[in-house]
Amino acid sequence: MAAMKILVQKFGGTSVATLERMQKVREKVEDGLGRADKVVAVLSARAGDTDNLLALAGQWSKNPDRAECDVLASTGEQVSVALFTMLLKDGGIKARSLLACQIPVVTDDSFGRARIRSIGSEALRAFLDRYDVLVVTGFQGCTEDGRVTTLGRGGSDTSAVALAAALGSVECEIYTDVDGVYTTDPNICSAARKMDRVAYSEMLEMASMGAKVLHIRSVEFAQKYNVPVRVRSTFNDDPGTLVTQEDSSMEALLVSGIAYDRDQARVTLHDVPDVPGVAAAVFGPLSEKGVLVDMIVQNTSLDGLTDITFTISRKDLKHTLEITAEVAAKTGAAEVVHDVNVAKVSAIGVGMRNHSGVAARAFAALTQEGINILMISTSEIKITILIQEKYVELAVRILHDTFGLDWDVA
Ligand code: ASP
Ligand code: MG
User: Fold this and answer.
1) Whole-model pTM?
2) Which ligand is nearest to the CA of 42?
3) Nearest-CA neighbor of 357 among 402, 393, 294?
4) Most buried in the list 102, 219, 315, 371, measured by CB within 10 Å?
5) What is the 175 CA–ligand 2 centroid distance (Å)?
6) What is the mean pLDDT of the chain?
């Protein structure tokens, strides 16, 4: 007998928010059943439910217990799978709901940001012998000893990709309220285009820059287990964007997308002694306190003194300034200055690996518009510049055009 063809489809919070929308979701699942033998539908909580639940925790307790927060937040998904399964059954489909702990989706015990360790795929397959559609809670997990966990905000994408990997799903479809992944944010650049395909590595760079279509860990998972992920809309029939392994046709394109992030603050320690151990003295305490440092630049030294500049998320600024003040006193740095009116813009593309001159073209284009570049960092497939925040939209549009991503370009 031919192997059972299983399709995993994930539906986000806006797709399951109301009865009318869930009826659209039912159509997508029926469509999925036409293309595969069985469907595993992974659902998020209805839009706003998770926020409301977590707000309750804040009303009940000054310092809500983290494990109980997960018990609470995970109920949002429990509501949507129950409601949706009713709809499927009313439509004559053999379906049942499954909570993560009934499968189980086993995670570690980092409440609020648990990582998946294993999935009971045999049990799932046994259920699939009896049902055509399994409606599974996204976002949830459970520890080895049966405590409820959640995977972090937006974690349903990761649940879906993990289930797809465990079941050998042909593809993992992520249904949302946008048509797919765009070359940049269409809200600030009307020339943005939907991409047909994007490499995992590019998607990882875009997600970390705030292209919030996919939970970043789901992309890491998909890359690791080579699960093709298709981002598409619940509300039309567009094929969406396939997130997949890179190939030579993707490399032909120099730049695939432009991402940006306004959540940046820049901190500079002036005139730190240029001796071994100073960078460690600065960044050690920051990492101990959980501050994520993004771009780092150290100047060449003059008279044995140098400047160290780095960027962080704005919410970490107060904390960072406290730590750097201490470090400055210890190391004898002259002063610490900061700036919150900065933002970063990145050009991303696997094609950069084999082509030179991308950075030069980007800098030339920005110079023409009189945009000053404050910091630069590059990786194999990405060039990032830090600029004044007021220029973000202009810089995104300029780079989008410079690298031939605009609509009108053939
Ligand atoms: N319901 C969860 C959240 O709002 C998980 C998800 O939607 O992916 O973060
Ligand atoms: Mg999401």
Assistant:
1) 0.91
2) 1
3) 402
4) 219
5) 9
6) 94
CATH topology of domain 6-245: Carbamate kinase (3.40.1160)
Query: What is the percentage of the chain residues whose pLDDT exceeds 90?
Result: 87
CATH numeric code, 258-402: 3.30.2130.10
308 sits in the region (left: phi over 0; alpha: psi -120 to 50; else beta) called beta
Q: Is the CB of 156 under 6 A from ligand 1?
A: yes
* Cβ atoms of 272 and 308 closer than 8 Å: yes
Q: What are phi and psi of 276, to 5 degrees?
A: -60, 145
For a ligand 1 pocket test, name from 70, 136, 139 the mutation site with the most ligand atoms within 8 angstroms of its C-beta: 139
The structure tokens listed for 255 are: 């730049």
Pairing of strands 105-107, 140-143: parallel
pLDDT for 341 equals 97
What count of other Cβ atoms lies within 10 Å of the Cβ of residue 255?
Answer: 27
In the chain, what is the greatest distance between 2 CA atoms, to the nearest angstrom?
80
How many other β-carbons are positioned within 10 Å of the β-carbon of residue 301? 14
Look at residue 277 in the predicted model and tell me its pLDDT. 87
Q: Indicate the pairing of strand 133-137 with strand 38-43.
A: parallel
Rounded to whole angstroms, the Cα distance separating 215 from 9 reads 15
pLDDT in tens, 50-65: 999 999 999 999 999 9
For the chain, where do the domains classified as CATH 3.40.1160.10 start and end?
A: 6-245
